[in-house]
Design brief:
It comes from Odobenus rosmarus divergens (Pacific walrus). The protein is mainly alpha-helical. It is built from two helices and two strands.
Length: about 140
């Protein structure tokens, strides 16, 4: 729990922890709380990207097959509009896949930065060294 001023936290034993240690304890708890959701989101994004790659391949195969059928037909069937629709759908799948890939990369970088910052703060707490301008122990 955070105090009104935002500078104190409560340890697991219910003892108030003030200053940088309290903020770090809160940040670490928040990180541990969010980590499963971030990992689940990442795995879902990965699964969606894989299914979109498969969908794109299927669209490509279908478009190729439609073109082949169109060329082999003795009776003139106009399959071009359907091929164009398939190619448009493929373009949209690729666009969504790129958006998901960028979001997943940002999520990975954010997760890495948070872990790095948490490790840095933990090392500072363990060594008793605080950055300039922060209250001492």
């Amino acid at each position: 729990m955070m105090a009104a001023a935002g500078s104190a936290a409560v340890s697991g034993a219910g003892t108030p922890v003030a200053g940088p240690a309290g903020r770090d304890l809160f940040a670490e708890g928040l990180l541990e709380f969010l980590r499963p959701a971030v990992q689940q989101l990442d795995s879902h994004v990965h699964a969606v990207r894989e299914s979109q790659v498969e969908l794109r391949e299927q669209i490509d195969n279908l478009a190729t097959e439609l073109c082949r059928i169109n060329e082999d037909q003795k009776v003139a069937l106009d399959l071009d509009p359907y091929v164009k629709k398939l190619l448009n759908a493929r373009r949209r799948v690729v666009l969504v896949n790129n958006i998901l890939q960028n979001a997943q990369e940002r999520l990975r970088r954010l997760n890495h930065s948070v872990a790095k910052e948490t490790a840095r703060r933990r090392a500072m707490l363990d060594s008793g060294v605080y950055p300039p301008g922060s209250p001492s122990k």
